[in-house]
Write a structure and sequence with these properties.
Layout (H helix, E strand, L loop, with lengths): L1 H21 L3 E4 L2 E4 L3 H11 L4 H31 L4 H21 L4 H16 L5 H28 L6
Antiparallel strand pairs: 1-2
Helix pairs in contact: 1-2, 1-6, 2-3, 2-6, 3-4, 3-5, 3-6, 4-5, 5-6
């Protein structure tokens, strides 16, 4: 049943993202058009959050949101510093190492287990290195939105398909 719930959660995220695209609801940053609900991010959130019980899914979702927000905020700080310092490639490398350490440390200080802290670090690395310029800030915002969306979908689907019970 867990695999079915995961598949349903992923289906909901894919349908929502595709619906936003079909309605042309993308965020314009210069020439780029960014997805508000990023398919991969929302679906990965479902994969990581969907657990055997509603409570376990809620806890996993809350942790996923926490580490993603920490990683994205650290990424946004590095991006802002990079922009302020003139976007030098070598300086960005140093900023990324500092930001990575900050992300890992802050996740651990927030009570995240080591594995979850690394997931926050993945969010950090994606924000700091996926796009260029200020678009990275918007990418971070929509990464957080997509993670929260995936966690909420997981909570809802898990509650519906388990009848809100704690059993499998």
């Amino acid at each position: 049943m867990l695999d079915v719930r995961i598949a349903v959660c992923v289906l909901v995220c894919l349908l929502a993202s595709n619906a936003l695209t079909a309605l042309n609801l993308k965020f314009a940053v210069g020439e780029m058009r960014l997805d508000v609900i990023q398919k991969a991010t929302a679906c990965i959130s479902c994969l990581l959050c969907c657990q055997d019980t509603v409570d376990a899914s809620r806890k996993a979702g809350a942790m996923r949101v926490l580490v993603t927000v920490v990683g994205c905020v650290c990424g946004m700080a590095v991006v802002a510093l990079d922009q302020l310092l003139g976007s030098n490639t070598w300086v960005l490398v140093l900023l990324m190492v500092v930001g990575l350490m900050a992300s890992l440390c802050l996740c651990r200080l927030a009570g995240a287990p080591a594995f979850n802290a690394r997931i926050g670090a993945i969010s950090f690395l994606l924000v700091a290195s996926t796009l260029t310029g200020a678009a990275r800030l918007w990418y971070a915002l929509f990464r957080m939105v997509s993670t929260v969306f995936g966690a909420l979908v997981t909570w809802g689907v898990t509650s519906l398909l388990t009848g809100g019970s704690q059993a499998r």
